[in-house]
């Protein structure tokens, strides 16, 4: 089972929840609107790609898009937690890329089929190293994603439709959250393709600064 490290503790990854359409400007660029409740999908743990590995583009898609996201790691099991208590269940934060085969996803959307292949292929859940929870204020933090030194996405979590405590409250009430669950919290506007040879860079202040190569 894949595991993450937060400070000195190893945490086996349980489920990988991903939130779609959580920033208004990104929902708009996808031609979607944001409803009263979060839209959530899952990735298999086999999709995880950790620092030091390069990203291999699948040959069955012509359009792999980056979606840079704040990722939350849950540290303790919880059910039906309220917003106020939600933060105490967070073990740490990373940045991630919710890689998406946009052409395959568009086809799935047209047919009303699941997004599993377009979002869950091997390597589709890119993760930086984690920082412990107290280091980050999840409702008021910014992060950047660039390709070959050019800024492509800038996120300000104050722009989230459903902030991190709200997501934890909602997920814990619908699914129940487990220690080791990861939550990809949605991407801001600016998604676009990655190509072979690109150098991808995820940056959150002085806390997270990591690059990934596309093979
Ligand atoms: Mg996403």
Supply database-style keywords:
Fumarylacetoacetate hydrolase, domain 2; alpha+beta; four-stranded antiparallel β-sheet; eight-stranded mixed β-sheet; 17% helix; 5 helices
Task: Write up what this structure looks like.
A hairpin with a 3-residue loop joins strand 16 (199-204) and strand 17. 17% of the residues lie in helices and 35% in strands. The strands form 4 sheets. Strands 3, 4, 5, 7, 8, 10, 11 and 14 form an 8-stranded mixed beta sheet that branches. Strands 13-12-16-17 form a 4-stranded antiparallel beta sheet, with no helix packed on it. Strands 9-6-15 form a 3-stranded antiparallel beta sheet. The two termini are 25 Å apart. It is α+β, with helices and mostly antiparallel strands and 215 residues long. The longest helix has 11 residues, at 164-174. The protein has one domain (3-213): Fumarylacetoacetase-like, C-terminal domain (Fumarylacetoacetate hydrolase, domain 2, Alpha-Beta Complex). Bound molecules: magnesium ion. The site of magnesium ion has 8 residues, from strand 3.
Bound molecules: magnesium ion
Provide a count of the helices: 5
Distance between the termini: 25 Å
Structural class by secondary-structure content: alpha+beta
The run of helices and strands is EEEHEEEEHEEHHEEEEHEEEE
Number of domain units: 1
C-alpha geometry: globular
> How would you sum up the major sheet?
8 strands, mixed
In short:
The strands form 4 sheets. Strands 3, 4, 5, 7, 8, 10, 11 and 14 form an 8-stranded mixed beta sheet that branches. A 4-stranded antiparallel beta sheet has the order 13-12-16-17, with no helix packed on it. The model has no long low-confidence stretch (mean pLDDT 97).
